[in-house]
């Protein structure tokens, strides 16, 4: 049964009247985008509760339409009401806890309450602030592609049976904004769904360090230790922040050992491989490597398209295909920037009361990345820069020769063409001697891995990118 089915007819009439009144003050485009997706949840003498598709949606309405919404509420309901937003995915839980709520004070979710109620009265319970997860970060909202497929499969396996797989600890590494935190929290969400009483702790290594220092200062080390060692599933984000923090590393080492020995699951993220973590004790590195280490790579063009389409669907926004393709072609290495660009495009559109167009997208991308990034860079420009750098000819590149320097140059062209031009694997293969798309995919994986593992080679690629920018500029 939907929330609308549960509402009484009088409340529905007032909600319809509120929407009708809002249309007098808000442009049609903004009304359709921001208010039609909202649904009424409940109303009393003090509070009107409204369901929004996601947190971004509710925050945007509160930020940009608070005054007009307040004005229309007073007109329709005859009084000032406090507006409270709830997120759609938590709606059914909110409904079940709402029946006996007389006022505006927030209540714990059903999951939080059942955790407490099913525990023995004297048992220690992990504080809420250590177990809060972002509702958007679930497996359902994670876009899978060749760049992250293995990481997602491993994460799902751990979430289904925490502590009962060979993947303990699970360490997920990759660059900034590629989805490590998303996967980490998705594990927590899924594990908690399967067992609401499971103690899930999510924390950044930086917060772990700050809490440790605070515990020392306040002489509360035992309490600090209990919080983490009572976990069934410990999720630690950005472990690289423990570098050169000897005291914190010592505490984390003992926490890790205690949980591991008792069969509790540990999942860690890092921006680099364990062996690249300088200033981290060898015994910790050894623990990290004792389980499964998986990486997340920058998304390919098709995956970037899928990510943007998924975001548009989640935000219930209609984005023209050419705009999605343009963004995917120009933001190539970072999922967070990719989604951020789409958010900015939609925000610009709403604030300016204009449609989402390719020209608007160009303006936003230009603001984010600069003029050169929005210019079309052809494979010919990329090929010329790589050929000059490695001193190989076009005939050698197009031929079947397997000389080491020629094969490397050919793979670099494939990698950079994929990264910069956004062309499909098939198109790149055809342009480079009619090679199969699987050859291009293999080249991209090889070069991507070599860039991550070999700093000198990474500098070579940066030098070639710089030359490409100069030529395109």
Describe the structure.
The protein is α/β, with parallel strands linked by helices and 473 residues long. The protein folds into four domains: 3-112, GMP Synthetase, Chain A, domain 3 (2-Layer Sandwich), CATH 3.30.300; 130-296, P-loop containing nucleotide triphosphate hydrolases (Rossmann fold); 301-374, Helicase, Ruva Protein, domain 3; 379-472, Chromosomal Replication Initiator Protein Dnaa, Chain: A. Helix content is 57%, strand content 9%. Helix 13 crosses helix 14 and helix 14 packs parallel to helix 16 (358-369). The protein is flat.
For the terminal residues, how far apart are their CA atoms?
Answer: 58 Å
CATH class of the largest domain: Alpha Beta
CATH superfamily of the largest domain: P-loop containing nucleotide triphosphate hydrolases
Structural class of the helix and strand makeup? alpha/beta
Described by its quaternary structure, the protein is single chain
Uncertain runs are 1-6, 97-127, 371-375
Layout: helices, strands, pairs:
Elements: H1 3-6, H2 9-22, H3 28-35, E1 39-43, E2 47-52, H4 55-77, E3 82-87, H5 91-98, H6 110-117, H7 149-160, E4 170-174, H8 180-194, E5 200-204, H9 205-217, H10 221-229, E6 233-237, H11 246-261, E7 265-270, H12 282-289, E8 292-296, H13 301-314, H14 321-330, H15 335-352, H16 358-369, H17 379-390, H18 394-398, H19 404-421, H20 425-431, H21 437-453, H22 455-472
Parallel strand pairs: 2-3, 4-7, 4-8, 5-6, 6-7
Antiparallel strand pairs: 1-2
Helix pairs in contact: 2-4, 7-8, 9-10, 13-14, 13-15, 14-16, 15-16, 17-19, 17-22, 19-21, 20-21, 21-22
